[in-house]
């Protein structure tokens, strides 16, 4: 194999590959239908020309056939009048028109066959174009669906799900940290009045036991040792009310 043959094959192969890659199914199908419609127009024109030619041939055939019949009648007329020479001349004319009619008849038969063949081809092409249009629409729909699916897959493939999930995990950890800090702050800042009384109530058993021990040592009752009365001459009227309430509480405790 020569060098130029190899180069030619390489060039043709590369061109075919470029053309194949550049082919858009939708555009190729549209162009194919356009080409078929152009062929249909040309075929219709050919059928029209063939029919016109057939009609002219048919007219010429009928004309020559009529002329041949007329010269036949003239030959009979001349012979009936006893003029054989004129009758012979009429028969010569008749033969000329008759021969032309026979030739035209053969042409007419051939033209009729051609017209019938062209008409069948025209009908077949129209059917193919109709089928091609339907198939074109189906293939275009499939091509568009395939393009959309390919674009979707490329979009999904280009998404970095690992980084997105990592962001969710980081945010979840941060929310958990905020919740823990909020709970700690609530525990540290929640030692209010109720918590203080709860602490006092929890430690009352120890205090009672301590008061009882002191009473045994001093000979006084546990209630007197635990809650001694106190006077505060510098107390305000408001403090006096509170002291009175405390005294009432002491008396309740002593009586219990």
TrEMBL record:
Coiled-coil ranges (or none): 26-74, 101-188
Keyword Coiled coil: yes
Keywords for this protein: Coiled coil
Cited InterPro entries: PspA_VIPP1
Polar residues biased stretches: 218-238
Transmembrane segments: none
Family under the similarity heading: Belongs to the PspA/Vipp/IM30 family.
Full protein name: Phage shock protein A (PspA) family protein
The species this protein was found in: Stanieria cyanosphaera (strain ATCC 29371 / PCC 7437)
């Amino acid at each position: 194999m020569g060098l130029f043959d190899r180069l030619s094959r390489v060039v043709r192969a590369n061109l075919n590959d470029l053309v194949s890659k550049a082919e858009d199914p939708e555009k190729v199908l549209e162009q194919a239908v356009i080409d078929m419609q152009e062929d249909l127009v040309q075929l219709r024109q050919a059928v029209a020309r063939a029919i016109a030619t057939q009609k002219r041939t048919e007219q010429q055939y009928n004309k020559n056939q009529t002329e041949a019949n007329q010269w036949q009648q003239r030959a009979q007329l001349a012979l009936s009048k006893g003029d054989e020479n004129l009758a012979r001349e009429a028969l010569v004319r008749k033969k000329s028109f008759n021969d032309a009619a026979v030739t035209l008849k053969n042409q007419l038969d051939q033209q009729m066959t051609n017209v019938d063949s062209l008409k069948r081809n025209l009908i077949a092409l129209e059917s193919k174009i109709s089928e091609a249009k339907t198939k074109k629409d189906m293939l275009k729909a499939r091509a568009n669906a395939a393009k959309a699916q390919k674009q979707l897959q490329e979009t999904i493939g280009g998404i970095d799900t690992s980084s997105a999930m990592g962001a969710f995990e980081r945010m979840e950890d941060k929310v958990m940290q905020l919740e823990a800090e909020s709970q700690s702050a609530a525990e540290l800042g929640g030692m209010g009045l109720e918590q203080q009384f709860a602490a006092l109530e929890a430690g009352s058993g120890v205090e009672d036991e301590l008061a009882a021990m002191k009473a045994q040592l001093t000979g006084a009752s546990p209630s007197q040792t635990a809650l001694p009365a106190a006077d505060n001459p510098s107390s305000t009227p408001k403090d006096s009310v509170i002291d009175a309430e405390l005294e009432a509480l002491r008396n309740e405790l002593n009586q219990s």
